[in-house]
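Section: protein folds

Sequence with per-residue C-alpha cells
===
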Amino acid sequence: MKEQTITIDLNTGLQARPAAQFVQLANRFSSDVFIEKDSKRINAKSIMGLMSLAVGQGEEIKLIADGHDEERVIDELSEFVKES
C-alpha cells in the first residue's frame, strides 16, 4: 500500500470535467485507489464519490493505492492535479 498527501493546484479543484478526467485516469490502473479528505474516504474510481468530496483548489487530499501498480497510479494522479 502507498499513500501520499497532495495539494490540489487546479483552478477549478476536482469539480466537473477535471473530476471526470481524474476518475478516467484512476480507472486505467488495476490497483484499488482511494481519496481521503476530512476523514471521509471514497473510491477514486467513482465520479459520484469524488464529486461528493467537493475538493477545491488549494485543499489537501490523501491518495491511497493498493495493488501491483500502486506506485504508478499515485505518481500519475499526483501529476494530474498539478499540471492540468
The chain has a mean pLDDT of 95. The domain at 2-83 is CATH 3.30.1340.10 (Histidine-containing Protein; Chain: A;). DSSP finds three helices and four strands in the chain.
